Predict the structure of Alpha-1,4 glucan phosphorylase.
Amino acid sequence: MAKPLTDQDKRKQISVRGLAGVENVSDLKTNFNRHLHFTLVKDRNVATKRDYYFALANTVRDHLVGRWIRTQQHYYEKDPKVSSGNMSPQVEEADDWLRYGNPWEKARPEYMRPVHFYGRVDYTPEGVKWVDTQVVLALPYDTPVPGYRNNIVNTMRLWSAKAPCDFNLKDFNVGGYIQAVLDRNLAENISRVLYPNDNFFEGKELRLKQEYFVVAATLQDIIRRFKASKFGSTEFVRLDLSTLPDKVAIQLNDTHPALAIPELMRILVDIEELTWEKAWDIVVRTCAYTNHTVLPEALERWPVDLFKNLLPRHLDIIYEINKRHLERITKLYPGDVDRLRRMSLIEEADIKKINMAHLCIVGSHAVNGVARIHSEIIKETVFKDFYEVDPEKFQNKTNGITPRRWLVMCNPGLAEVIAERIGEDYIRDLDQLKQLLDFVDDDTFIRDVAKVKQENKMKFAAHLEEYYKVKINPNSMFDVQVKRIHEYKRQLLNCLHIITLYNRIKMEPNKSWTPRTIMIGGKAAPGYHTAKMIIKLITSIGDIVNNDPVVGDRLKVIFLENYRVTLAEKIIPASDLSEQISTAGTEASGTGNMKFMLNGALTIGTMDGANVEMAEEAGEENLFIFGMRVNDVEAMDKKGYDAASYYNRIPELKQAMDQISGGFFSPGQPDLFKDLVSMLMNHDRFKVFADYEAYIKCQEKVSALYKNPKEWTKKVIHNIAGCGKFSSDRTISQYAREIWGMEPSLEKIAAPDDPR
């Protein structure tokens, strides 16, 4: 429950001058008070912080609504091609994010759509019928997504599952009421909870239901909008679906929306009565697939039996797609049975499974990875056979981040210092940051950049003290690793460095050490035991290190609870060192690495994901690159990785591992970390020990440079200047031109109160 505002809080003015499109502050205050009274039914005596937030959110939404409606009118009049992209200790707690409602969204019950499950397939003279299905209704909720100073407000449409009909009250008299309630809950469970496991596939029926539910609702909506010609029209006037790929692009963001391929085939063949060949041509030209991981355990493989029960018509369609696909491969490679097995959509193992990545590749006209090294890896390894058949399908689209949120909003001090030198146009055209190279030796600019960083650190230190009750040294290096907790991201390598640094300080307490505050944050998937134990190890190391008087404030270890975007917006601008230390060849791209770079942190990292391109753009000498490259990892895989040889050869590594296994960090439970120790010693797929020595040596270089603030800040400026490539504006423009076949528009439309 939010606390009521104090008198001091109430006296504070809410700053509104920075809001785009708000010309009249007094009008905004009037609307704010109107929403507080009439929407929330509160006055200032009883209003909570949440009430003030909701009143402000509703006020801002009022300003967006005119632009939102005008944007839709503009799209219907101009009829542009549109992309449906992204169809898709610590104690853990559920995030009930809709408990208090969401002021930004608008329910659209008039566009509710039925989604079918189960049933059976009838082959009739009139065509194929999917019958006796269970129906769940998809209720759309729209959220406005405003553009940057262009009066465009796009729509993000999400779907909520609703039971199809109200209770039949006569059932109450025959004892069926409770069952009716349970059935209703069962239907609505589909959108009640998100499966949070990432980089690990778990084939559960509810997850498959969720994936199909979103796909089916979205595709019905796409086709409804395609057929309607005018804004608000309910008449279907565009009936020739052969032009669908000219007006619609569907980007399959990983394999989760892969069912869009068989579902669109079902609509085109069964409902619109197109021939298979015509329908398939439309599907392939409409769909494109982005791959996000090469980890085999993350790739979706659904049991055929599950499909047969839940989506019988889609299973038939997938079988037909596979039959035609394999006929083509047979013609290209006669007699190559092993190739057919490798390329089939159906994996014939003990349990027959559908390989969803293969379905995505076969059913799409373009396939891309999300960093150059990742796109090369998928062509050379997981999708090698498909690349050999259709090399023209494969592309790269390096990820990007929006400079509006990840610089202007979260780090206004730095944004302003940059604007003073090169103007504000870089906010729309991030390549202009290259101009900062002219100021790399400018003492005033160096001082200004360093000053903003120090102010951000002071702010974050105060935040930590208030919310975590931890006092840290703001003059220490803020060494930060924030990302999902996963073995491949190697938070354990960071832990080994912390322990090594701790042992060195203990051994030579009078030496002049570079003080560090090491912060690690991120969430573990609920079923991922190893990840949870990694969090426990981090907090346990912190308990020992932070309470050792010999160490003092020269080394602090903090686990950042509940890492999320709002915390990222505080920690990233305050960071000095960004840890991007995954095993080479495992991180598809990363985007946190780009956010740190843009906000003036230096990177210590492996040549993995987008780190490779960051080093190219900023100059490798301006990053701290260490460790095995992809070819080294591949060579080690062939030869075999022997963790014990490193353990026996490197005394500091042995000492650190012995401390973990001997209970030094868990005195009350000496064998607490035995599973982690066993994994690291016996079956570590991500080869932590192989990069340990190089990582420790690289960290020594980091500490040495940090003692020279001017040279450190010069490298920071090189990094900021090299960030232009990593704008999401560039990424999306490339998707538009090279995959969706459309020219991105920089058009600004008239504001609602301007004459049209």
In short: The chain has three domains: 7-68, 79-396, 403-726. Residues 1-20 have pLDDT under 50 and may be disordered. DSSP finds 30 helices and 20 strands in the chain. The first strand starts at residue 82 and ends at 84.
